[in-house]
Every structure is written in C-alpha cells, then in structure tokens.
Amino acid sequence: MVETIVFYTLSALILGLGVAVITTPNTVHSVLFLVMNFLCVAVIYVVLEAEFLAVIQVLVYAGGIVVLYLFVVMLVNLKRDPEAHQDPRRLSLVGLALAGAVLLELAGIVVYSYSREPSAPVAAAAASPVQGNVEQIGWLLYTDYLIPFEVASVLLLVAMVGAIVLAKREL
Amino acid sequence: MSNTANFPLLSLIMFTPLVGAGVLLFVSKPNAIRWIANGFAMLGFLVSLPLWFWLDTTSPDWQFVERHEWIPSIGAEYFIGVDGFSVLLILLATLMGAIAVLSSWTAITERLKEYYIFLLVLQAGMIGAFVSLDFLLFFVFWEVMLVPMYFLIGIWGSANRLYSAIKFFLFTLVGSVIMLLGILAVYFYNHEVTGVYTFDITRFHELNMPIELQTWVFLAFFLGFAVKVPMFPFHTWLPDAHTDAPTAGSVILAAVLLKMGTYGFIRFSLPILPEATRNAVPWVVALCIIGIIYGALVAMAQTDWKRLVAYSSVSHMGLVMLGLFALTPVGITGSILQQINHGIATGGLFLLVGVVYERRHTREISEYGGLAKVMPAYAAVFLVLTMSSIGLPTLNGFIGEVLILQGIFVVNKVWAGFAATGIVLSAAYMLWLYQRTMWGTVDNPKNEHLPDLNLREWATFAPLLILAVWIGLYPKPFLDRLETSVDRVMARVSSVYPPRNVLHDDGQDAAELPALDGDVSDVIEIPVRGGAR
Amino acid sequence: MEITPAHYALLSAALFIIGVVGVLVRRNIIIIFMSIELILNAVNINLVANARHLENLVGQVFVVFVIAVAAAEAAVGLGILLAFFRNKETVNIDEMNVMRW
Amino acid sequence: MDLIWLIPLLPGIGAALNGLLGVRYFSKRVAAGVACVTMGGALLLSIGAFYQLLGAEHREHVVTVAQWIPPIPLATASGEIGAFEVPWAFRLDPLSGMMILIVTGIGFLIHLYSVAYMDHESRGAYARFFCYLNLFCFFMLMLVLGSTFLVMFVGWEGVGLCSYLLIGFWYHKQSASDAGKKAFIVNRVGDWGFMLGIFLIFFTFGTLDFRAVAEAAAEMPVEVGGFGVLSAICLLLFVGAVGKSAQIPLHIWLPDAMEGPTPVSALIHAATMVTAGVYMVGRNAVLFSHAPMVMQVVAWVGVLTALLAATIGLVQTDIKKVLAYSTVSQLGYMFLATGVGAFGAAAFHLMTHAFFKALLFLGSGSVIHAMNDEQDLRRMGNMRLYMPVTFITMFVGSLAIAGVPPFSGFFSKDEILYRTYLNNKLLWGLAVVTAGMTAFYMFRLIFMTFFGEYRGPSWGHQEGEDHAEAHAAADDGHDADAQGHAWHGPHESPGLMTGPLWMLAVGASVAGLVGIPAAFGFRNLIEPFLEPSFTAGAAHEATEHAESHLLEWGLMGFSVLIAIAGIALAYHFYVRRPERSEQLAKHWAGAHRWLTNKYYVDELYGATAIKGTIGSARGLWTVDRHVVDGAVNGAGWLTRACAWVSHVFDKYLVDGMFNLLAWVCTEGSYVFRRVQTGLIQNYAVATLFGVFAFVTMYLIARYVG
C-alpha cells in the first residue's frame, strides 16, 4: 500500500516536473526543475531496490550533468529571447499530435501486453559470489561487462577531449 | 657470355638517371634542382664511360649481359647486353643527355622539376632501348621514350607546341603499333618452329622465316622504324617537333631519338629479315635518295633557322639509311659512324640555335645577320659545326659520308651519283644560312649587344668540337668498335663478306655466328606452314 | 493495488513522450538538450523496473552505461553549443541552418 | 725526308695557335710572328726535304704517319673482296717536291707581305687572317703531299674552306660573302665529280694509293677510240679539277674571289690553290694518258678557257679582275699542256706562273694599298713616279707573263705552244692568239696604271671632299685606325711589302732557266726531273721528239713576235693615243658589252641553275607543307571527322538517354526540395512519424492480423 502511494506520488512529481521542464520560459528555472525531476527518479530507484543507481543518479546526474547545464546557461549570456525567432515552416503541432498518438499506442501496448501475458522471472545470471546491490553490479561490471566498461571509459575520454577542443576559443 | 665480372654495369647506367629523377621529386629549390639534375646527368655519362674501355672489340659476343626473368608466362625476359654499335650509341645518348641538361640551365625557368625529371626519364628510356636484347623489353622502352618527349614538346615548347607534340606522338605511335604486330608475328613464328615462347632477339637472329612472312614483317618493322628515322614520306613530324621543342628536346631528338630508327633497322630488321631486306633495297634506296635531295632542297627554302636544321636532318638521315641499305660492310660502318656524326653536328647546331633563341626569342633567319661581329666565338663554333655537317674533311662528317657513298657506289654507281649531289646541296643551304646569319652587317639593332658564349655554353660545345675533330682525324677507335657489330649484320644479309674476326677460331666463337655457306634460299628448308595467323 | 512493471512502463512512456514533445516544440536548444536527458531517464526507469521484475541485475548495469553516454552527450553537445554561440550569438534552433546546403 | 709530315703540320699548329688563342689574346706582332715562323719552318723543312730528294737514288718517299680509316672489306670490280683502307700517308716525289717549294716559298713571302698589308685591320681580324692563311697552307701542303686520293681530297676540300673564309674575310660586305659562298659551292660541284672519281678508282683498283693505282693503270690498255672505265675515272677527276682550277664551265667563281684581301688572291687564287687541278691531273698522268678521249676534252676545255678568259681580260677595268681573268687564262694554258700530254710543261708553267702571278697580284696589292683601296684602273695613272719599286717589279712580272725572253714565262709558255703544235695545229692557233691577247691586256694594265696622267683622287690641300669620297668608295671594313690617319696621296709601300716583290721579281726572271728548251743547247732540267712522277715506275717513255730544232726556233720566234705585237698595240692604245681605245669600244659596242659582262655566264647560271634550285626548293617546300604534310594532316582530319560523327552519336543518342533520366530527377527534385527546410525539428518530426508508423505496424501485426 505504501509502495502504491509512493509510486503515484513520485510519478505525479516526475511527470509534473518534466512538463515544467519543457514549458518554463526561463531556462534557469527549467534547469532547477530538471534537478528535482532527477532527484525524484533517484527515489524511484530506491523503491526499485537499485540503491547504487540512485546514488549515481544523484551524484552524476543531479550533481554533475545538471551543474554543467547551469554553467552553460550562465555562459550563454543571452541578450535576447532565445525563442523570439520562429521559422514559419516548423511542424510543432504535427509533432505534438504524433507524440500524443505514439503515447497512446505505447500505453495501449503496455496495458494490453501486461494484462494478457505476465512474464516469468528470467533465470538469474551466473550466481555471483557476492551479496548486495553495489557489490553485484561491481562484480558484473568487472567480469562479464569489462570490455563495454572500458569502452565506456574511452568514450568518456573522447568526449572530454572533444568538449575541450570545441569549447576552447583557440588551440 | 660476358667477358667482365658480374657487375651490372648496364643496369647501373640505365638507372642512374632514374635515381636522379626520383631524387628530384623531393627537391623544390630551383638551383638545387638544377645542380642535382646536372649532377646526375654528368654521373650518368661518367658511369657509361667504362663501356668504352672495357668493351672487347674483338669478341663477336654480346657483352655486359644481364639476364633475369621478367614475365615468364610469355617468355619475356630482362635481357640486356651490348656490342660495339650500341656502346657508341649509349655513349652518345649519355653525353648528349648531359649536354642537353646543362644547356637548359637558364633556358627553362618554369616547372623546373618536371622538366628535369622528364629529361632524365627520357635518357633512361633511350639507354634501355639501346641495351635491350629482348624484343618486348625494347618495345617497352621504345614507347617509354615517347611520353617524356611528348611532354617536353607540349609543355616547354614554343608557339605551335601542342600540335607538334600530338603529331609527334601519334605519328610514332602508329608506326610502333604496326611494329608490334610484326614483333608478334616473329614471336609466334618462332614458337611454331622451335616450340619456345621467347622474345630473345639472339634467337630471332637465327631464324629463317619464309619469304612472304618476311616481307610482311619487314613492312611492319619498316613503318615503325622509318617513321622514327624519319624517311622521306614519313618525315613531316620532324620539322614540327624540332621547331617547337625546347632546345634540349631538339638536341636529344636529333642526336639520339632519330637513331632509334636506324638502330632498329640494324638490330632487328636486317638480321631477322635478311631476304626481305635484300628485296627491299631498291625501294628503300629510292626513298633515301629522294629524301637526301628533297630534304636539302626544302631546307634551302626555309626561313626558320631551326626548321632549316630539321630538314637538313631529314637529308642526313637519308644518307645514313642509304649506307645501311648498301648492305656492304663499308656502307654499314659508315652509316653507323654517320649516326654518331649526325648526333654531334646536328645536335650541336640545335644547341647553337638555342643559344641565340634564348637571347632573342626568335628563330627567323631574317632577324639575324652579322652575328660574327658581335659574337665571334659563337660564329667560330657555328662554322666548325656547319663544316662538320656538310662533311668537310678533317671533321667527322666526312668520314661517314665517304664510307657511305663508297659503300653504295660498289653496289650501284648511279645511286651513288645522285646521293652525292647531297654534298653540293648541303653546302649550298648551310653556307647560305651561315651567310645570312653570321656574315653581313648588323642591321638589326636588337642584335648589337648580344653577349657571346659564356662559360657554361662553352662547356656544352667543347665536347662536341673535340669529338668532331677526333673522329675526323682518327676515327679508328670508333671503327674498331663497330667491326663485330657490322659483321654480325653482314653475316645475315650477305653471303659475300666473311667476318673479319676469325683470328680466335677456337670453335666456340665461330659457332655463335650463323652458318655462312650457301645462299639463304636453301636454308629455308625448315618446315613452315604459314607464319603467324 | 499492486504496482506492476506495467505501471513503471507507463510512467516511463509518459516521461519519454514529455521529452519528445520538449525536443519537438522548444526552440531553445539548451532545453532541447534537457529534454533529451528526460528521455534517457525514462529509459533508465524502464530498465531498472524490469531489472527488478526479472530479478536480473544486467538492466542496472545498462543504466550505468546509459548514464555514461548521457554524460558524454551532454559534454560534447554543450561544447558544440558553446562554440556555435560564440559565432552566432544565438541558441535558437531555427537559426541553426548552416548545414542545410 | 721522314719529317715531311711536319711540313703541313707546322702551319697547322700556327693556325691552331692563332685560331684558339690568337684571336683573343695575341697582339698583332705575336700573331704575325707565329704565322711567319711556322711558315718559315715549313719552308726550311721543304728545302731540306727537297735537297735530300735530289740526292736520293730512288726519288720517291712515302711516310705513313697513322692509320686513318682502318681496313673494311668491300667488293671491287674484279669480284674480289678488297679492303677500303686509308692511311695518313705523305708522299715526296719530284712533283710534290716542286709543289711544296712553291707553296712554302711563295706562301712565306706572302705571309711577310701580309704583315704589312693587313696592318690596318683590327687586332682580332689580324690574328684571324693569319689563322686562315696558315690553315690554308696546312691544307695546301696536305693536298700536294698526300699519298692517297683521300688524303689529297682532305687538302682539296680544306683549301676550298680556307678560300671560302678568306674571300669572305670582310664578311660584312655583301659582295664578299656572296663571293665566298659562290666559290665554295661551285667548288663543291667539282668535288662531286672528284669524289665519284675516287669511288670509281677504289672500285676499279681496290686501292686509293697513287702509286698503286698508277701501276695498275699502266697495265691496262690505252682506251683508244673507246670510253672505258679509265676514261670515266679521268672525266670525273677532271670535273673536280675544273671546279678547283676555274675552267669552263665552272670558272665563274674565281673573278668574284677577288673580293678577298689581295695577298689571298696572290697566294690562293693565283699561285697555289687554283693550280691544284693541274697538279691533280699531273699526279694522275698515267691514268689520263690511258684515256685519250678525255685528254682531248682536257685540251679543248683548257684552250677555250684560255681564250675566253683572255678576251674578257681585255676590257676589265678592275686591276684585280684583269689579273683574275689572266689567271683563269693561264690555267687554261696548263690544262692545254696536260691535254696534249705535256705534263712536264704544265708543271713547269705552273711553277713560273706561281712566281709571276703572285708577283703581279702583290704588286697590284701594293698599288691598291697606295691608292687607299682604289682598284679601278681608270682612276690610276702615272704611278711609276710615286712607287718605282712596285713599277719595276710589276713590269718584270708582265714581261714574264707576256712571254718575252728571257723571263720565265717565255720558256714555259713556249714549251706548251711547241708541244701543242706537235699535237694539234688548231689548238696551237688558238693558244697563240691567246698569247697575243695576254701580252696586250697585261701591258694595258701596266700602261694604265703606271703611265699616262694621274687620274685618281687628289689629296693634300683639298682633302675634305675627296677624302670623304675615297673613304666612301673604299669599304668600311677598315676599322677605326684606318679612318684615323689621313691619306697623303700614293706612296711607295713599306719594306715588308717591297721585299717580297723583289724576291718574286727575281724568281719570275730566272725561274725559267731550269727549263731552257733543248734547242738552246742547254739541258732542260725540270722535265726529266719531274718525269718519274708522270709515269708508272719502270715504264719510262721516250719523250724526245724527232722534230728538228729549226721548227722549235721558228715557233719561238713567232710567239715572241706575237707578244711584242701585243705590247706594242697596248702601248699604242693606252699611252700614245688613249682616246683610241674608247673609240674602239664605242665602235664595237655590242662585243664590248658581251666582254665586260663576261659573256653573261653568271646571268645564265643565275637564270638556270640558281633560279632552278631555289625555285624547286620553294616548290618542294610548298609540296611538303601542303601535300606530304597535308596527307598527314588529312589523315588526322579524317580521324577527327570520324571521331566527330561518333561524338555526335554518343552525345545525342547514348548520352541523351542518360541526360533524360537526369533531367527527370532534376525536375522532380524541385518538388521534393521543399521538404528540406533545414529545421532539425522537422526532421525529428519525420523520425517520430517513422516511430509512429512502426509502432502502428507492430500493433496491426500483433493484434489485428
């Protein structure tokens, strides 16, 4: 029962904050709504017994990425309203309609499929010798997913270098 | 086979200019390019000098032979070697190459790098053609020479250069394509008789083909080589190419490239197709005599200095061909010597035209006059080369002329009589040219302050003058080197003349030469069922 | 009433569409980037929910990678944005058409 | 005698020094010194060699220096394989011995003379002149010493070159350069015959050595009444001789050759080179004596040349032209002598002629020098007052050429006339007429120059105009220093010029004494001495004729009379009654015009040979451009025409289809282009539409289908 209440509350918060993010005219506000949104998602993770991810969500997303956004917003010192100019040919309404249609379809699929054929738990991967959420994820990352992990690190390195190159005025 | 160590001298000579061209690719300063190109051209000459000294003039064998597989599937080989004849031509090519490169020092100012690379590649191609003993290899080099020459004329030439370059290229190409057909005919015939696929010309030299096939192949070869010589009706590319080529191009063209044609006749046409050659003598001689007189007369009508020299070339090469088709040792020896002489004299004359062209940028004879007053040394050099060209005794041209005319005289006196009119006509047009350019008063104010020859130009002429006098006074070293080459050809085309070098008849050398006894008609007993179809 | 994966899926879908709408409708490119973050979060929620439902931690591992990619994307994207802004003095996506030709 | 190869070589070295270094670096003094010393050395060597030859038992000596053309097999007429081989070999025998004395002796004197004569040339030209002069001597000595035909031919052509260069020495003058070219080309025509003759000799005998050829020819029958191979050889050789010795019809170059400096005219165009033809015929006496038909031709060509040249000489007004035609005429005499078989007489006359003609030319040079380069006889006169030495020596020379005893010309000319008389009376008649004319025109020259009134430009106080005029008349070849010093009237020449004149005058007087006819009771020295050169070894024919000495005396007296008559006539016309000559010229205006225009031979050649050659050259050039090259270009055009047709086909048919397709695409794209708005979000919408479509398809497939 508690879970239900928590879920609905959090869902409402997440969706509401999400709508706020994309509707607020002020960019700074938008960023702040985003932070809150992420925090709510972190709570969802806790509910879903993914404590490690929750921590990551707070640290990386809310703490790192969003702060990055804030910096950019400040660096981009806008002298005029960023949304002032509007191209007459843009198809925002069509997009909106399509988005709505897709949402309906997705909802239809979800409702329909989960009600018809509840899935059975999949056999867990090879039993890990460790217990606890963080240990298990660590185990997986450093054994089965070592190579993707390393690739991800390279990706981050590349992104870092790229960002520096792009952002620097002159090399 | 070779009498020297296994040192690949010929390859070295051939690849030195190529290495130079390769080095030039990485140089960009104009003066550095000049120095390096000159250095390699000079080096090319120096490494070819041992040929002169190391050649065994008494041995009828091919010397400095190198033989490696090339395209084994069709029997083509990297088979190179020389005899006295090719040694002289190689030396001529390397010397004239060095002179041509040196003469371009100030004449060429744009696209230096490409220019020198083309010159060096051209030289490698010429040497390659002279050393090839594999017919396919020869053909490859033969075609390789066309390309750099085409660009030399087309890029660095004068007014009408594109027309001339294309004409030169197409003319020669048509000839050589037909020649290729001839080569293939011999190749397949050889396979039919011996069962071996090979382009080895030493084997072809022992082939006795049926007369019909010989005639056709002779025609094919004739077209290829006669265009290059050039003989009378195929000569019109020459004046255009010479006139529009840059000086160095004209020099190389006159001194060496034209010799490709006569070289081809001596090395391929005559020994491979002896019977057809004998049958063709009257026709070829007729063309030669027409060429001699016609070239001289047309030269007389020219108003363009370079074109005049070019037509004199037609006349002289007619004489060379005449000596060749006398089919006597004296005639062929004279013909070969005259090729060298023509290279020296006409090459030198083109250089001379280049000298004034560089100063005045015109070749119209009427623009000049009285140059002996302003450029006395130039006039002196011009006089010597003119005299060499018209065959004054004590200079080189005379020896060649006398040998050729004597050689043809014993064959037919009337031919010789007509051919000898060339000496009168050549004197007429050359002296008229000399009078119009060197003598008289300096009428044209532009000519009043022309500088005389400078040290570099002297350096280009000095070797030519020395050679002209040397060959004129003491041609024996040259003639000695030709002995076995001439005998090799004579042994094939005539049963009258025995080889001179039967001194060391230890059996082995004698076996190298084809049997002499009996005329060729009874040698054609080899079963033949039509040549290559 | 039990909370099934379907609930989470619906939540995820809704958040996803919100992100999509943000991408499609807004002209401020910073907000468009943030919308993309929303989309990624929607995906993450779905993954985590299913990981619990299927009792398999692979889903969570994937989330780690998604976060890494998101970080990279944000860094590079914002770098491009800054460079662009320096040249054009704008963050309006309708004015970003230099690549059109 | 083994050093005879040094005789030509010394002047050769001199020429090389002057040519390579002198023109640039030598002072006038050094250049002249080098030339004269080398010539003097050659003279001393020649004298030494000649002396040894006189003392030798066998008067023939061959020195082979080196191999020139190594032996190369070649078929000969006999069917055997001979060897074409030419050594650098030199031969000293009586004939060449005499010739080298003439060449080096007169050559040396003329070198000395030139030192003074050419003094007003610039330094470079001065050295160049001596280089050419030495080079000429080199080739001339090579010609006379050569032991084979080909070595002789080397000299033969070489002297032609030097002649060309020296005639054209003042190359800035159009006339000089024309004359040089003409000389060379006309000589080349002769050389054409000579060369073919050489080839035929080799073909016939298998050797080119003089001695071997002569011995082989002696074995062959005399071609009486037939025209065999020997006749052919001789005729071809004679063509060469005609060219070199300026006989009809190739005589035209020699008068023009007077454009060269006067010492050159003396040395080359009087004393030595032009006699090379005679020398060559004499050298091949054995061959010629086996071809009587050709001998007839030689004799007739000789006598006609002598006569025609003498007639032209009668009316020439240029002092050097008179001497030039006189030379042609005298050469005709020599050929007449060879033609009648009197080779010794020909050689004898060659020698005496060398002396007196060189003398006359040098004398005329002295006069020209004194008159500041005036050559016209009509502008001279009374010069004996101003230049007595020149007058005396030239007078001696004229007496010699006119055939007045006891001067040299008398003996040699008389020998020829006598031998001609024995052979053919008609030839003799023509020759005697010529002798009379010779005396006339020579003394016409002497009288017009040295007697009468002075008709030349004045000098001294009224220098201004005339001086300028004289300079205008003279050529502008004399460089700055010539312009600088003023002309002070005719004057005697310096010692370096008169010295050689004296020596030659002595020679012209006494040279005849070596050939006094037997009729005088002395021994004729020269003919027996030369005899071995004209016969093949042992075959020594008896040349003594059974005619009485009375006949010889009679003929001698007659020719002396003729000569004196000629002199007297000249005296009458040009000293006593100068106006008579002009009246005569008017009276015979037609003939006079023919003679002054040299029978229009030059014009004839100009209209035929030269015009024909140039015309055919131009014609062939047109043919070459339009027909031969036209064929090539036509082939090129045809190829291009074919190429154009296939180009059209390709362009409009084959390519057309592809272009149509492309056109459709292009036009279609205008429609679709509107979709491309450049707005990223529109593309995102499209993507979303794709998602929508896929999801819809999924739904339909999953739940409906």
List its traits.
C: 101 residues; mainly alpha; Helix Hairpins; 3 helices; 77% helix; D: 705 residues; 27 helices
Can you characterise this structure?
The complex is a heterotetramer of chains A (171), B (533), C (101) and D (705). Chain A is mainly α and 171 residues long. Helices cover 73% and strands 0% of the residues of chain A. Chain A has helices spanning 2-23, 27-47, 51-75, 92-116, 133-142, 146-167. Chain B is mainly alpha-helical and 533 residues long. Chain B starts with 8 loop residues before the first helix and ends in a 21-residue tail after the last helix. Mean pLDDT of chain B is 86; it is low at 502-533. Chain C is mainly α and 101 residues long. Chain C is built from three helices and no strands. In chain D, 73% of the residues lie in helices and 4% in strands. The chains are: A mainly alpha (171), B mainly alpha (533), C mainly alpha (101), D mainly alpha (705). Chains A and C meet through helix 1, helix 2, helix 3, helix 4 and helix 5 of A and helix 1, helix 2 and helix 3 of C.
> How confident is the prediction overall: mean pLDDT of chain B?
86
The rough form of chain B would be described as globular
Number of helices of chain C: 3
Oligomeric state, counting identical vs distinct chains: heterotetramer
Strand residue content of chain B: under 5%
Rg for CA atoms of chain B? 22 Å
Q: Which sequence of SSEs, written as H and E, runs from N to C of chain B? A: HHEEHHHHHHHHHHHHHHHHHH
Number of helices of chain B: 20
Overall mean pLDDT of chain C stands at 87
What is the SS-derived class of chain C? Answer: mainly alpha
Secondary-structure class of chain B: mainly alpha
CATH architecture type of chain C: Orthogonal Bundle
- What distance separates the N and C termini of chain C? 56 Å
Tell me the CATH topology of chain C.
Helix Hairpins
Low-confidence stretches of chain C: none
Number of domains of chain C: 1
Helix content class of chain B: 55-70%
Largest sheet of chain C: none
What low-confidence regions of chain B span 5 or more consecutive residues with pLDDT below 50? 502-533
Evaluate the radius of gyration of chain C.
17 Å
Question: What does the secondary structure layout of this molecule look like, with pairings?
Answer:
The complex is a heterotetramer of chains A (171), B (533), C (101) and D (705).
Chain A: H1 2-23, H2 27-47, H3 51-75, H4 92-116, H5 133-142, H6 146-167
Helix pairs in contact in A: 1-2, 2-3
Chain B: H1 9-24, H2 30-54, E1 63-71, E2 76-82, H3 84-103, H4 112-131, H5 135-156, H6 161-194, H7 201-204, H8 211-228, H9 237-244, H10 247-272, H11 274-300, H12 305-324, H13 329-360, H14 371-374, H15 376-389, H16 396-409, H17 413-437, H18 455-473, H19 476-493, H20 508-512
Antiparallel strand pairs in B: 1-2
Helix pairs in contact in B: 1-2, 1-4, 2-3, 2-4, 3-4, 3-10, 3-13, 3-18, 3-19, 4-5, 4-10, 5-6, 5-10, 6-8, 6-9, 8-10, 8-11, 9-10, 9-12, 10-12, 10-13, 10-19, 11-12, 11-17, 12-13, 12-16, 12-17, 13-15, 13-16, 13-18, 13-19, 15-17, 16-17, 16-18
Chain D: H1 6-25, H2 28-55, E1 61-75, E2 81-92, H3 94-117, H4 123-145, H5 149-167, H6 174-205, H7 210-219, H8 229-244, H9 253-256, H10 262-271, H11 276-283, H12 285-289, H13 292-315, H14 319-339, H15 343-370, H16 388-402, H17 408-423, H18 425-450, H19 463-473, H20 480-484, H21 495-510, H22 526-534, H23 549-576, H24 578-587, H25 589-596, H26 601-672, H27 680-704
Helix pairs in contact in D: 1-2, 1-4, 2-3, 2-4, 3-4, 3-10, 3-15, 3-21, 4-5, 5-6, 5-10, 6-8, 8-11, 8-13, 10-15, 11-15, 13-14, 13-18, 14-15, 14-17, 14-18, 15-16, 15-17, 15-21, 15-22, 16-18, 16-21, 17-18, 17-23, 18-23, 23-24, 24-25
